[in-house]
Amino acid sequence: MMRRDVFQAIADPTRREILGMIAHKSLNINSVTEQFDVSRAAIYKHMKILTECGLLEIKQQGRERFCEGKLERLNEVSDWVAQYREFWETRLDSLESYLKTLQAKNQDQGKTKL
């Protein structure tokens, strides 16, 4: 089986919607496919990609197959975003500090606030 990247899974809005549907409870495949206006085959293809990314598991229960979310792998996305959040927070803190310095300087010189 070809292993896909978790970022591929979330790159598509249909796959994100499927993940949202199965995030809190498992659903049978028919319940998932009925929610979309595209062909059943297209939804199966999205499910296959999600399975290859390790975000979805399909389990047989009796005559039905259920989709279950395995969302732990989304931590990779969260970790990746966190490093950029820290970068931007540092930049914004520097900007805020600079603006406060300018504002204080202007007030000392009797100018109006920024």
Characterize the biggest β-sheet: 3 strands, antiparallel
Q: Kindly, what is the distance between the CA atoms of the first and last residues, rounded to a whole number of angstroms? A: 59 Å
SS-based class: alpha+beta
Tell me roughly what share of residues is in helical segments. 55-70%
- Element order, helices and strands? HHEHHEEH
Secondary-structure map:
Elements: H1 6-10, H2 13-22, E1 27-28, H3 29-33, H4 40-52, E2 56-61, E3 64-69, H5 75-108
Antiparallel strand pairs: 1-3, 2-3
Please tag this protein with its features.
elongated, 114 residues, alpha+beta, 12% strand
Q: What does this entry look like structurally?
A:
This protein has 114 residues and is α+β, with helices and mostly antiparallel strands. Helices cover 59% and strands 12% of the residues. The protein is built from five helices and three strands, in the order H-H-E-H-H-E-E-H. It has a three-stranded antiparallel sheet. Helix 2 (13-22) crosses helix 4.
